[in-house]
Write a structure and sequence with these properties.
Elements: H1 5-13, E1 20-27, H2 32-55, E2 60-62, E3 66-68, H3 74-85, E4 92-97, E5 111-114, H4 125-147
Length: about 150
């Protein structure tokens, strides 16, 4: 489910089944020589989020991406958002990112899933689908481990 008016209405009616919140974290580089890689990482992360949302429509809610530049304290942003959602009806909060500086961030509430960015912008659609399926196999154990606790 996506964070839009129609799907939030469904969530409110069925929140006992939709127990997982996923928040994409997008680092926006401001230096010209890093912008292309940053945009490519964003493309990958958002495409993966769309793919995962389609797979887990009745179980997960995906927020709009949280974007930040290098001057932000990304760890503080993540901790604040996790804390804000701690009292919500979501039992599990995950942050997805391609930013390696957040890979080892430990949170009281929520978990960061770091994925290395794969440039998908010029890929054949069949290869892109295969890459997303492979990424699903990487993150699925993280989700299921939390769901079984």
């Amino acid at each position: 489910m996506n964070w839009n008016a129609q799907e939030v209405d469904v969530y409110i009616q069925q929140k006992e089944y939709i127990d997982t919140l996923v928040i994409p974290l997008v680092k926006i580089e401001t230096e010209a020589e890093k912008m292309k890689a940053s945009a490519s990482s964003s493309d990958f992360l958002m495409y993966l989020a769309k793919f995962l949302e389609a797979q887990f429509k009745g179980r997960m809610m995906f927020t709009p991406p949280v974007a930040y530049t290098p001057s932000f304290d990304a760890a503080q942003i993540v901790e604040t958002i996790a804390s804000d959602f701690e009292s919500s009806s979501f039992k599990h909060t995950f942050f997805m990112t391609t930013d390696p500086s957040l890979a080892t961030l430990q949170l009281g509430a929520g978990q960061v899933i770091w994925l290395p960015s794969i440039p998908i912008e010029s890929m054949d659609p069949n290869l892109k689908q295969k890459i997303m399926e492979d990424q699903l196999q990487q993150v699925l154990p993280i989700f299921t481990e939390k769901w079984t606790k």
